[in-house]
Amino acid sequence: MPPDASSPTLNEKAPAVLARGLRRNFGEFVAVDGIDFEIERGECFGFLGPNGAGKTTTMRMIYRASPVDGGQLEVLGLDAASGDFDRQIKAQMGVVAQEDNLDTETTVRENLRVFCRFYGMSTAEANRRCDELLEFAGLVEKSDQRVQALSGGMKRRLMIARGLISRPRNVILDEPSTGLDPRARQNVWDGLARLREDNVTLVLTTHYMDEAERLCDRIAIMDQGRIVACDTPTGLIARCSAPQVIELSLRRGPLPDHARPFLERAQRVEHLRDRVLLYVESPEALVGDLTKNLPDHPAMVRRASLEDVFLELTGRGLED
Ligand SMILES: Nc1ncnc2c1ncn2[C@@H]1O[C@H](COP(=O)(O)OP(=O)(O)OP(=O)(O)O)[C@@H](O)[C@H]1O
Q: Distance between CA 110 and CA 132 in Å, rounded?
């Protein structure tokens, strides 16, 4: 039966998602370890974290592809454990899962049309909606091609378009731009920015800090099943121990002993595999001294980023 988007029982004022002590175990392994968060309507909220942090599992609980093992989860004001949940929530929520589950044997348009029919649209309505979404996804010229002939970026855009068929006011996207080249990623970001302008609630996961910083109003940084910080991008970056970072390259080998007094002038130092990060209030004098005294270790200055926040909170880089 097609979902009924006009269900009167949903509370329009309730947060898009409310989680308290949310938990998911796989046997003995705790994938999501009692997390709390609240996502407002119209907000773009991102879960940022490394592989295995528990982001996808959290998303799957929200769109009901995974059971909840503990705590409370409300989506659009409905308790995830309630019997009404599935039909009502699925009507209100567009889901773009991580795995590509397009029908590769049929055309781009047909992939959309099948879902239009599922939502009970007439042929004329379905055609109109397909045209709108092909335009939105920049796939008009590909509409009659089989999906197997699309690039990875085009497939991703088609999956996003498919998630929008019912004009959901809440859209969940699991890693919307993973594996895309910079141009394809930019296209996806532009599409998501348009949804944001229309006040659609966006909930996404990513391990790209630039994506999180660029798109999200608020970000929950996840690590090992926990939320280690949740704030606006600027609020998170302001938590860094210093606003500027000097990166010293280790490409030509480790730092010599006489580097130590320079490192001691930084507020905080992080040693990574290929570089050393020095967190400072103002970099000018120290960079000058480093360049003069450590010519084999080029220094680059940048502003503190979400990656630095992650490093400071967890002791590891996002890519680890
Ligand atoms: N069905 C499953 N059975 C057993 N363990 C699982 C299952 N699904 C996920 N896990 C484990 O739960 C942990 C969290 O996985 P999850 O996919 O939520 O992480 P993630 O943050 O989304 O990572 P990624 O960025 O790689 O998608 C991982 O250690 C994963 O191996």
A: 14
